[in-house]
Amino acid sequence: MSELVIKNLHVGIEGKEILKGFDLTIKKGEIHAIMGPNGTGKSTLAYTLMGHPNYEVTEGEIWFKGENILELEPDERSRLGLFLAFQYPVSIPGVTVANFLRSAINSRRRAENPEDKGIPIPEFRKMLKEKMEMLKVDHSFAGRYLNEGFSGGEKKRAEILQMATLKPEIAILDETDSGLDIDALRVVSEGVNALAGPEMGVLVITHYQRLLNYIKPHFVHVMMNGRIVESGGPDLALELESRGYDWIREKVEIEEAA
Ligand code: ADP
Ligand code: MG
């Protein structure tokens, strides 16, 4: 049951419809990639899954682990095991990466058991050390203030570390931002490849085909004009790389005219 089910999702921003009947199911253990030209609604999908108040769901459903999450606040969605990589993009002066991660873990633990006293410090240190080694993150990183003066790659490193410590059941990464230089790309792909497995489902949203040279998705979807217009396996990403999006756009126009 641990899956994300999106059914006939329609979402508007300031009265303008952006998502127009979006359908997708992601199970644990699966890596899905959504690709598509700019302005097709990829980030709108990510923000809507997070529960951003500006995005108005006018029709459709989002289920996660059998719960209708449209009624849940962003933090409740997160505690349920949904992770969105851009959840905390801002810098938090005076809060170190380690402190930030510890409070995120504790908030998750308290959601499960209100009596929880929080993760014991030695246990947290050990866990953090393991995760940092697994992700090849330098020790000193844990003591730095979150996002303060971080490069694009370092922001991604903090996000991936957050993903590693929270162990979400479904992780959503919207990788369309301009900070995705080669270093950031490598951090994201190595992180996803290290963490993905039978206990986690991943949705990678990107308009950079080259990200998929590093992450091997099981399913590739093409999004256009607010919905998925083509789905396939990893071959679809290669086809997009060599042929671009126009052939899909033409196919969709023909189908819509018929
Ligand atoms: P993508 O991530 O695929 O590039 P977005 O989801 O960011 O696309 O944007 C989809 C459409 O929604 C675009 O036409 C964009 O101009 C519009 N849009 C996005 N965010 C806002 C906003 N905050 N207010 C008004 N329109 C927006
Ligand atoms: Mg976007």
Q: What is the CATH architecture term of the domain at 4-90 and 168-257?
A: 3-Layer(aba) Sandwich
What name does the CATH topology of the domain at 4-90 and 168-257 carry? Rossmann fold
Low-confidence stretches: none
- Count every beta strand, where a strand is a DSSP E run of 2 or more residues: 10
The strand line-up of the biggest sheet is: 6-7-8-3-9-10
- What is the N-to-C order of secondary-structure elements (H for helix, E for strand)? EEEHEEHEHHHEHEEEHH
Heterogens: adenosine-5'-diphosphate, magnesium ion
The percent range for helix content is: 25-40%
Principal-axes geometry comes out as: globular
What structural category do the secondary elements indicate?
alpha/beta
Radius of gyration over C-alpha positions, nearest whole angstrom: 19 Å
Task: Tell me the β content.
Answer: 25-35%
What is the mean pLDDT?
89
Distance between the termini: 38 Å
CATH class bucket of the domain at 4-90 and 168-257: Alpha Beta
CATH superfamily assignment of the domain at 4-90 and 168-257?
A: P-loop containing nucleotide triphosphate hydrolases
Largest sheet: 6 strands, mixed
Number of helices: 8
